[in-house]
Design goal:
The protein is of the alpha/beta class. It is 46% helix and 15% strand. The chain contains 14 helices and 12 strands. The strands form 3 sheets. Strands 1, 4, 5, 6, 9, 10, 11 and 12 form an 8-stranded parallel β-sheet that branches. Strands 2-3 form a two-stranded parallel sheet. A two-stranded antiparallel sheet has the order 7-8. β10, α12 and β11 form a beta-alpha-beta unit. The structure holds zinc ion. Zinc ion binds next to β5.
């Protein structure tokens, strides 16, 4: 990672971004797609998944000022028309996306986007929207950050995790999530219940203040964003790993999510971002059902600008506290700066 930072600094000093911005059409017709999750800064002793923060407000403002000055942000309708050969790209196109549906997207990111006339697409998880509950992995992060035991043993995942300081809690959470991504959905749910039963579930006693830290957007907020030039897309009902579901469960998550958002917001939902979004988290069956459900475009969370199909478009990750030169380099030279 440090090597990438250094290279990005060198590129920035040499002014490569400006050169590429001037001639970008000659190099590539791929549209870079940025992915954010949360905007802002986790509070001290933050009890959920810190890794979901993509940029502070200051970083996001700087990034959007740069996008406004140098790029042409597309709406999702334009992106879909482009991949279907029905839209001529403006100079330096870019697409901005957000995953999951956290409330800071509305409170912090939306005003910055709106003030600059930059459209973005928000992929939302419907079980989370307008609810008091948090996403399953956020709840697991809360468990590991708050549980008061010396170690957590999860036989089904062959894990024996010491719980000492903050670092070991984060490590235990990340290891467990990584393993849970590889098991069938029903098994994942059963393992989670098992962990909470065996060790006690601190989430049961969560305070309202802490709950607010992992809050979702409401349907009303999404309506307001839609009315102000933002796009809404699907991110499943419950954020499972779609490839680990059986056929009827995949259909439920993919069709049900689209229908519910359309019903709540009164608009067509044409785009989906697969939860987790690595190659192994959305199978050919998932893509087939996505097509059958009537989606027109699908996004992975693979770091890049590849587009194996219009239902498998890669996106560029934005990482909090990464140097601004790296942000610029990733967009301009994604093949060099993606991990
Ligand atoms: Zn997600």
């Amino acid at each position: 990672m440090r090597k990438l930072h250094l290279a990005a600094e060198v590129f920035a000093k040499l002014g490569f971004h400006r050169i590429l911005a001037a001639y970008s059409g000659m190099f590539s017709k791929k549209v870079p797609v940025l992915t954010y999750h949360r905007v802002g800064l986790p509070v001290a002793d933050y009890p959920f998944d810190k890794g979901l923060y993509s940029a502070t407000i200051e970083e996001f403002t700087t990034q959007m000022n740069y996008i406004k000055a140098n790029y042409s942000p597309l709406t999702m309708t334009q992106m879909i028309a482009y991949i279907n050969g029905e839209f001529t790209l403006p100079k330096n196109p870019i697409l901005i996306t957000f995953d999951d549906g956290f409330e800071d997207n509305y409170r912090l990111a939306f005003p910055i986007l709106k003030a600059r006339g930059i459209p973005a697409t928000f992929f939302v998880t419907t079980d989370f929207i307008g609810s008091n509950e948090t996403l399953w992995y956020e709840r697991l992060a809360y468990f590991f950050n708050r549980v008061e035991v010396a170690r957590v043993k999860i036989d089904a995942l062959s894990l024996d995790l010491p719980i000492r300081g903050k670092r070991s809690r984060t490590k235990a959470y990340l290891k467990t999530v990584e393993r849970l991504k590889l098991v069938k959905n029903k098994e994942r749910l059963a393992i989670l219940v098992g962990i909470y039963e065996e060790y006690g579930d601190p989430y049961v006693y969560i305070s309202q203040d802490e709950l607010e830290l992992s809050k979702s957007m409401s349907w009303e907020q999404l309506k307001e964003m839609l009315a102000n030039g933002m796009d809404i897309g699907a991110h499943s009902i419950s954020h499972p790993i779609l490839s680990m579901l059986d056929e009827s469960e995949i259909e439920h998550e993919i069709v049900g999510c689209k229908k519910l958002i359309e019903l709540q917001l009164g608009c067509n939902i044409d785009s989906i971002a697969y939860p987790v979004g690595q190659h192994e988290s959305y199978s050919p069956e998932v893509i087939e059902q996505t097509v059958n459900a009537g989606y027109k475009i699908g996004f992975s969370f693979v770091d890049g600008v590849g587009c194996p199909s219009k239902y498998s478009i890669e996106r560029l990750h934005v990482d909090i506290h990464a140097p601004f030169s790296l942000f610029k380099s990733k967009i301009a030279f994604p093949r060099l700066f993606c991990e």
